Amino acid sequence: MKTNTSTTAPSVARIATDSLELTVDATPEIPRIEHPRPQFFRDAYQILNGLWQFAYDDDDAGLRERWYEGGEFPMTIVVPFSFQSRCSGIGDRTFHDIVWYRRRLTVDPQFAGKRLMLHFGAVDYEATVWVNGRFAMSHRGGHTPFGTDITDLLQEGDNMVVVRAYDDSRDVTQPRGKQYWEEESASIFYTRTTGIWQTVWLEAVPVDRLESVVVTPLVDAHAVDIHFAIARPPALATAAATPSPLELHMEVRLDGTVKAHERVLVLEPQGTVRIALPQPVALWSPDHPELYDITYRLVSDGRVIDHVDGYFGMRKIAVENGKVFLNNRPYYLRMVLDQGYFPDGILTPPSDDAIRRDVELTKALGFNGARKHQKVEDPRFLYWCDRLGLLVWGEMANAYRYSETAVSRLTSEWQEAVLRDRNHPCLIAWVPLNESWGVPELLSDPRQRDFLVTLYHLTKALDPSRPVISNDGWEHAVSDLCTIHDYESRKEVLKARYQTAASAVNATPGHKLIHAPGFAYDNEPILITEMGGISFKQSDWSGWGYSHAESEEDFLTRYQAVIEAMLESPVIQGFCYTQLTDVEQEINGLLTYDRIPKAPIDVLRAITEGRGRPLS
Question: How far apart are the C-alpha atoms of 100 and 56, rounded to whole Å?
Answer without folding.
Answer: 6
